Amino acid sequence: MAKDYYNVLGIERSASKDDIKKAFRKLAHKHHPDKKGGDEAKFKEVSEAYSILSDDKKRAQYDSYGRVFSDGQGFGGQQGDFSGFDFSGFNQGFNFEDIDLGDIFGDFFSGGGQRVKRGRDVSIDIELSFEESVFGTERKVLVHKTSVCDVCRGSGGEGGETSICEKCNGKGKVNEVRKSFLGSVAVMRECEICHGRGKVPKKKCSTCHGVGVAERRSEINIKIPVGIEDGEMIRMSQEGEAVPGGISGDLYVKIHVKKHSAFTKQGHDLVTTLNVRLTDALLGNKYTIHTLDGDIIVKVPETVTFGEILRVKERGVPYPDGKSRGNLLIKIVIELPKKLSRKAKDAIEKLREEGV
Ligand SMILES: [Zn+2]
Ligand SMILES: [Zn+2]
Asked: Which residues in the chain show pLDDT less than 70?
């Protein structure tokens, strides 16, 4: 049967976060194991109750199910497991006033640094020509960042032989005494010698000096998919900064597309304009259009009107499946002559007589 955490803290089920915090402070102070009359078992119990009820998610689970499901961190469901928390490190100095509970509990209950370390994300900007944005491309860029050492492939050693880290005795973690509102507290932190691996290379890699990562310029090959839009972001998993003993962050590539003098994009359609002479608009003609991928001949039908759109299939932006493309939309602009010769005027007069 699970404990009644509300009872442990002596509060109502409706207690506010503030009530919970106050009750905990009072009881933690009272039962602190290093205090005269202190009670380690009670102190643990109180701390456990607090860790559940001060966390909205865990409190909700506890209220609904009477227990908290372990999330693999801290002692959510494993009652009383104070991994990473050493009571022997307490001393007499209490200072409840100026240290935030969240700080110290972040350390107590985070499971002693079991979270996977992750390197920083890196973001870069890339400018593409309009054509590259339509048809896709590949770019090699040099990014200056902390990367996995390419000589030892992150192991930090030469030859792959390792020995137990003497500093942490192979645990990967070491105790550190920190000042807190409960006095000095021993918390676990990652060993700085082996970076949490617990092992050190027998012979250090000379390139990264045994760290496993090194700052350098890395060439990254970026595949730009077809039809990418200006302002879109490509996320490249684990191409960001590396950390020793952890996983790399991500690389974010922000795309900027240069404008084209003749074409714009509308979804998968490419849009352009075609200037046709007045007589061609009336009688029809063939025009050559320089598309992004080669010239095509389009037939302008007779009596085409201003703003009419001619559609050429399969000449637009490719679809990702590589099988089909959008359309090329050609918007007709009729160019009226700036000046008319005597002969031209006579001819047009005849048209007028015909009622055109
Ligand atoms: Zn190396
Ligand atoms: Zn170590």
From this structure: 1-2, 69-115, 182
Q: What is the 189 CA–ligand 1 centroid distance (Å)?
A: 24
Ordered by start, the domain boundaries in the chain are 5-81, 83-115+163-199, 122-161+202-257, 264-353
Of 28, 174, 42, 167, nearest in space to 104 by CA: 28
Contact 227, 133 (CB under 8 A): yes
pLDDT score at 115:
63
The architecture of the domain spanning 264-353 is Sandwich (2.60)
What is residue 190's DSSP assignment? E
For position 69, what pLDDT does the model report?
Answer: 61
Q: In whole angstroms, what is the distance from residue 122 CA to residue 108 CA?
A: 31
Q: What pLDDT is attached to residue 57? A: 82
Kindly give the distance from the C-alpha atom of residue 156 to the centroid of ligand 1, in angstroms, as a whole number: 5
Q: What is the CATH number of domain 5-81?
A: 1.10.287.110
Q: How far is the CA of 202 from the centre of ligand 2 (A)?
A: 13
CA–CA distance, 43 with 50 (Å, rounded to integer) = 10
Domain covering 122-161+202-257, topology:
HSP40/DNAj peptide-binding domain (2.60.260)
Closest ligand (CA of 147)? 1
Q: What are the tokens at 114?
A: 């079991």
Say how many Å lie between the CA of residue 165 and the centre of ligand 2.
5
Are the folds of 122-161+202-257 and 264-353 the same?
Answer: yes
Q: What global pTM score does this model have?
A: 0.59
Give residue 216 CA to ligand 1 midpoint distance, Å: 12
* Residue 203 Cα to ligand 1 middle (Å): 11
Ligand with minimal distance to 154 CA: 1
Nearest ligand to residue 205 Cα: 1
